[in-house]
Write a structure and sequence with these properties.
- The complex is a heterodimer of chains A (187) and B (309).
- Chain A is mostly helical.
- The two termini of chain A are 37 Å apart.
- Among the domains of chain A are: 63 residues; 61 residues, Arc Repressor Mutant, subunit A.
- In chain A, helix 2 crosses helix 3, helix 2 runs parallel beside helix 4 and helix 6 packs across helix 8.
- Chain B has 309 residues and is α+β, with helices and mostly antiparallel strands.
- Chain B folds into three domains: 47 residues, no CATH class; 149 residues, Jelly Rolls; 72 residues, Phage tail protein beta-alpha-beta fold (3-Layer(bab) Sandwich), CATH 3.55.50.
- Chain B is built from seven helices and 18 strands.
- The chains are: A mainly alpha (187), B alpha+beta (309).
- Chains A and B meet through helix 2, helix 4, helix 5, helix 6 and helix 7 of A and helix 1, helix 2, helix 3, helix 4 and strand 2 of B.
- Chain A: This is RNA polymerase sigma-70 factor (ECF subfamily).
Chain lengths: 187, 309
């Protein structure tokens, strides 16, 4: 089942500026990007988000981008992630305000309270144990990928293992870490 | 329970080389709930940063120069055998690879890099850093800000090149900011030598050096204030608002301008960072005796007593 409404009149805007080839590529992929944004959960805001993207592209005045189409999709995906994050933040903020927490502190000696630090240290210990149980290769691959931002193909070449091995190891690590995260959140 | 399909897409789309956006779209369209599951897991993934422990490294921290108050052990000590295995694996994998590579962060983005030799570099937003795969004792901070926690080796000192200047460690935790007009360094542990081949200025913990329009000068800094951005705070003692606004822009990933009047002001205190600029400025601007106004995509910091917006 497609998760987006069809048959809506598209409102077009005229591209100005942006002398790079990105503008042509944006226009050529406009329909596909719109479809992606709708599938991604943008609903009736998909058109607006696309316009936001356009304005960002114009403002940035990017030089040549090596892989323009994936670049545009990543940008659209990031927009949706930002939207989700700000919605969560808004929720949390309303909660914070209800609890009377402020955003700024004026006292430089005001540090993280001791019990909070102990909880943090404990969480790190738990995560360390989870990673250790996965074995050194899985931990190494997870760190290369998640902390250092190295791609799976590059990691496979570095370690001389197959891409499938890297994929499986990463899934193992992610499964374990996300499970731990859920456990910590409900504690 | 973790949604396995969504998790697989989180991993795939996080790969810098990911290109199968059509396949991703098709999966999203299969079920409207998929987008939600993906969002939830991407948010959980982002939160993992807070619980992933720093990389364990087998070797102990070098004994340091005497006279440094309350040296505490670096936080990643205590890795044991796994650590040794990790270090070995990374070394083998990287030995034969080409030399210099660049690490860049977008404004507002931070990254943590563990070098093979046990040195850790935390990179603040809007930064460009060059490293050498064949020489883990080299780093060049082309622009932006980074905090270095260096494993000391007197026979092979760690050197950071910043423009024309060189900083050489003597067993150290230090933070460097490099903007078009200035270089600032603060030392929180150990000691750093500025331009060992020329001025050779020694900067022990608690000392800072700035080289900007006013020339080269050395001052005191609270060790706890060095690289406080890593804890989501900016700590200042009589700092110029022009410097502070650079730090804010880099840390929050926003374009920030200041009026000449605001630039001339100074501030002492702690500002807690908040990724929501409106909320951040609502608290931080009055604290500095300033007010912040949003102007389209940028923010303007100006002298206070204007109407709060």
């Amino acid at each position: 089942m497609a998760g987006y409404p069809n048959g809506k009149q598209f409102q077009h805007w005229t591209p100005t500026g942006m002398a790079t080839g990105l503008s042509a590529i944006f226009m050529a992929n406009r329909a596909a990007l719109l479809r992606f944004l709708r599938a991604r959960g943008a609903g009736e805001n998909a058109e607006d988000l696309l316009q936001d993207m356009w304005m960002k592209l114009e403002a940035k005045d990017l030089g040549p981008v090596s892989d323009p189409v994936p670049y545009l999709y990543r940008m659209a995906n990031n927009l949706m992630l930002d939207r989700y994050r700000s919605a969560i933040r808004r929720e949390r903020r309303e909660q914070d305000w209800a609890e009377g927490a402020g955003g700024v502190m004026a006292d430089p000696t005001d540090d993280v309270p001791v019990d909070e630090r102990m909880i943090l240290a404990q969480r790190l210990d738990e995560a360390r144990a989870v990673l250790r149980d996965l074995g050194p290769r899985v931990e190494l691959i997870f760190r290369r990928f998640r902390i250092e931002g190295v791609g799976q193909k590059v990691i496979a070449e570095e370690l001389g293992v197959s891409l499938t091995t890297v994929e499986k190891d990463l899934q193992k690590a992610y499964r374990a870490m996300l499970t731990l995260k859920q456990k910590l959140d409900t504690e | 329970m973790t949604n396995e399909e969504a998790m697989a897409w989180v991993i795939r789309t996080r790969d810098p080389a990911f290109t199968d956006w059509d396949g991703f779209t098709a999966w999203l369209e299969r079920d409207p709930a998929n987008a939600q599951a993906y969002d939830v897991l991407m948010a959980a993934d982002a939160d993992l940063d807070a619980i992933i422990p720093p990389e364990p490294v087998a070797m102990p921290v070098a004994a340091n120069d005497v006279g440094v108050p309350q040296r505490r052990p670096l936080r990643w000590i205590g890795g044991g055998a796994i650590a040794a295995a990790l270090v070995a694996a990374v070394s083998v994998g990287m030995m034969n690879r080409a030399d210099i590579y660049t690490v860049t962060t977008r404004p507002g983005e931070t990254r943590s890099i563990a070098l093979d030799d046990g040195t850790r570099i935390e990179v603040n937003g809007g930064t460009r850093l060059r490293l050498d795969r064949n020489d883990t004792r080299f780093a060049a901070l082309d622009s932006g800000e980074a905090a270095f926690t260096v494993r000391h080796d007197a026979s092979d000192p760690f050197r950071v090149t910043v423009g024309d200047a060189v900083f050489e460690d003597a067993g150290t935790v230090f933070n460097i900011v490099h903007t078009p007009g200035a270089v600032r360094i603060g030392v929180s542990e150990g000691e750093v030598i500025y331009n060992p081949g020329a001025e050779a200025i020694s900067l022990p913990a608690g000392r800072a050096l700035a080289d900007d329009a006013q020339g080269l000068r050395v001052m005191d800094i609270a060790p706890a204030a060095v690289a406080s951005w890593r804890q989501g705070r900016l700590v200042y003692a009589n700092a110029a608002v022009s410097d502070i606004s650079d730090d804010i822009g880099r840390s929050l990933g926003i374009a920030l301008r200041t009026t000449p009047g605001a630039r001339a002001m100074r501030f002492t205190g702690t500002i807690r960072l908040d990724k929501d600029p409106a909320r951040f400025f609502a608290g931080a601007a009055p604290l500095m005796g300033l007010s912040a106004v949003r102007q389209g995509d940028t923010w303007l910091l100006k002298e206070g007593d204007g109407p709060q917006s």
